[in-house]
Amino acid sequence: MSNIEDTVKQSLQNSYQFDDLMKLDAVKQLEKSNNKLYTLLTIVGSGTYEDYIKFSSTNDVQQISGINKDNLTTKMRVVGLCELCNGRSELSYGDISNKLQITEDEVEDYVIRALSAKLIEARLNQLEKKVYIIKSVQRNFGDEQWKQLQSLLAEWKQSVTSVQKTIQQNALKQ
């Protein structure tokens, strides 16, 4: 086993974001030398929970990664929750349980795991069975996210310019 394979396996166990790791040439070489490990890293890094279930149904993820399948499944559900939180201010327990293929009773456990990993900031409302999202970590930050950020900054700049004009017009009236 190569050093890069060890590094990838440790990252799969200990990390939630893999952008920088995926950019390394040595990791890209795994696509040829250890395709299953590379595919698993790609799924955990940017795939969906459904992608993981499909892959793990035909591959022994514990043998590939050295990580217990239940632990990796839990990790995929936590990152799936994080992904689900992006761009939303609230989620129902039902939405979360459907997406993560868990019971509503398990939702709070996964929210707490995501909170503990500092992947989300949120509040639980047990009476309403809702999660109120304050912020969530972006799993990947690529070209699409930069374009989205650019668009948001352009909107913000336009709003600030509009407020400045209004203030200047009101100052002239006085």
UniProtKB/TrEMBL annotation:
Residue ranges constituting the PCI domain according to the UniProt record: 1-138
One Pfam family it belongs to: eIF3m_C_helix
Cellular compartments per GO CC: eukaryotic translation initiation factor 3 complex
Entries under PROSITE patterns matching the protein: PCI (PS50250)
GO molecular function: translation initiation factor activity
Keywords from the named record: Initiation factor, Protein biosynthesis
One GO process term, biological-process aspect: cytoplasmic translational initiation
Presence of the UniProt keyword Protein biosynthesis in the record: yes
Family membership noted in the UniProt record: Belongs to the CSN7/EIF3M family. CSN7 subfamily.
Protein's recorded name: Translation initiation factor 3 subunit Tango
